[in-house]
Design a protein that fits this description.
single chain, alpha+beta, Alpha-Beta Plaits, two-stranded antiparallel ribbon, globular
């Protein structure tokens, strides 16, 4: 059996999920974009932060480690002469989190307002180190980072298994989602504050 739900990822502040590349001569860190040039949240990252939340519950004694391993998968110890470990996949599947289809379609249109809105999704932020002796910027320390404005993205989550497996998986996720408070880079600077909820909830 398969159970599916829509997860709403509501960013409350500007956020940055990096591509590992710069943009032009003035931005050192560019935002990850999809094939349409729109910002998105990779499913592997979303799955990872939810797992971190579940493992925190486990460390606090609210969940069993086997429950987390069953839902998210685990790395099995090496066997045989190869000496290589291998992964056992979990029951949870997480898609990339993207803008809703109607918003994506409008932003991709040739409409002038849509194109202006598309450009307005991205901001540029610059930081530099300050010389404590003189109170001036240190040479060659200016760094530019691309940010995304607060957006609401949607991801599809699926849990495989029996009816009991699926129910237990959703129950574990219900307890884990409230612990995810921020996503992406520069969280210590106030970026990436987020709320996660199931689709259809206020």
């Amino acid at each position: 059996m398969n159970g599916h739900r829509t997860l709403v990822v509501e960013f409350l502040d500007t956020w940055h999920v990096g591509s590992g590349r710069g943009r032009g001569s003035h931005l050192d860190a560019a935002v990850e974009r999809d094939v349409d040039g729109l910002p998105y949240l990779p499913g592997r990252l979303l799955r990872g932060v939810i797992r971190d939340a579940a493992e925190a519950l486990c460390a606090w004694g609210h969940l069993q480690s086997q429950q987390v391993a069953d839902l998210f998968g685990t790395l099995l110890p090496a066997e045989g002469a190869s000496g290589l470990a291998h992964a056992r996949p979990g029951r949870l599947q997480v898609s990339d989190a993207r803008l809703p289809p109607d918003e994506r379609a409008w932003l991709g249109s040739a409409d002038e307002e849509a194109q202006a809105a598309r450009s307005a999704l991205f901001l540029e932020s610059f930081q530099t180190a300050i010389d404590e002796r003189y109170g001036t910027a240190r040479s060659r320390t200016l760094r530019g980072t691309e940010l995304v404005v607060p957006l609401t993205l949607h991801a599809e989550l699926g849990v495989q298994g029996t009816a009991d497996d699926i129910a237990q998986g959703w129950a574990l996720l219900e307890r884990s989602l409230p612990l995810v408070r921020a996503l992406g880079a520069h969280k210590t600077r106030g970026h990436g504050r987020v709320q996660l909820r199931w689709g259809g909830q206020a």
